[in-house]
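User: Hey, my collaborator sent me this sequence without any context and asked if I could get a structure. I don't really work with proteins. Can you help?
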Amino acid sequence: GVYYNSISARLSSNYLINLFTAPQILNRISANAVYFSQASIGLSYSKFKENPLFNPSKIFEEIRGSIYLPISFERTVMNLQLTYDKTKLSQSRRDDYRLNLSFSFEGFNPFLSVNYSNTTFLKSKIEDAYLSFGSMINVPGISKHISFLKGNLMNTRVNYNLTNKRFENLYLYFATNLMNFLRFQISYEKNFVHSFSNVQLQLFLDLPFTRYWVNTNTSSYAQNIQGAVGYNFSADKIYFSNQPQRGRSTVMFQMFTDDNGNGTLDPDEKNIQGADISINAATRIERRSDGTIIAYELNPYTVYTAEINEAKIKNPLYKAQHSQFSFVTDPNGLKRISIPFFISGEISGKVIRLINNEKTAISGLKLIITSLDENTKITVNTFWDGTFYYFGLKPGDYIISIDPQQLKRLNLVSSPNEISFAVSASKSGDSIEDLTFILN
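Assistant: No problem. I've predicted the 3D structure and written it out in structure-token form, which is a compact way to encode the shape of the chain:
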């Protein structure tokens, strides 16, 4: 048998360190940083043990690094990815460098990829360099201009060998939906090096519990069927999938009304209807009638970021405790993530200026609301009559004060200097009223 263990440590909301050890095979340390912009940085180092069964290639160590940076220009998105892989064996070493650049504009996605590898064996050295370019056209994005292409996908790719200065192959692909569950694909490949061509036809039947497809090309014909059955112990329910799930991760998001503010889903608290969630990954999402959302086919031991969309919630007063967050997936199982929602709290009050013992109003005066729980600040301004109002506060402890810079410019002193208040969790939302500041 093989014994292994792993541990993960989150340094902050964006940084994660993983340690993995299998004493007979390898030790690995990795660090990942993921930001809400979806930019990410990853580093890992692996030290392998001599083991003819699990390490027949006699790998000594591996180093991997990657940087991903998305950049937006109005309606165009550019994705830049840099990766480096180093593999050291007993008598050789290989270094791989990759640059991937892609653009996205209304369904038109051109891309460019450069790959360079350097292999050293004893005293000999081999270098390889490739250039790939092409485009993917997600036709629904441009079907408003070319209506008959709606529901189709086209892809082209050309590979050029920079070392030998020659084109190696051309790839063309087209796919269309014949029905919601039936898809047709055709591809053509031309190999310039060995002077042969291949045409491949595929037909896919996708049902919730299984997937069946037929594949035929110039030399073969094949039929395939696949599916998976899973059991959720916490929900006591069987799940079916048309994709293999062994080794993959599944996450269930349950958004609920946290009426008592304890952050836990209690028996008398209900699910939120209409809330949606997006993940920074290509995955299959199931939105169920009870309000829960399930994300399938995620990679295990991976950090993902999620963002909640509150636009379709029937009650606009509901707000998520955290509209953006990250999580780590577990292998071979379903991970439940409960997301508390609350009814927004509101505050109101007024600012009065005393001039010769007469009360006058000051409009446009800035007040600062500071959350003691999250160390965040919100600014509001007084109306024409000196009153102020704000709606949308989470349950918690706060301090409100008048902007000290404005007080300094006006040569005024506030009494009191600040007011502390607490917003309580409740089914109808908390209301804090009659907060009053007097300026002298």
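In plain terms: Confidence is low (pLDDT under 50) at residues 145-149. You can pass these tokens on to your collaborator as they are.
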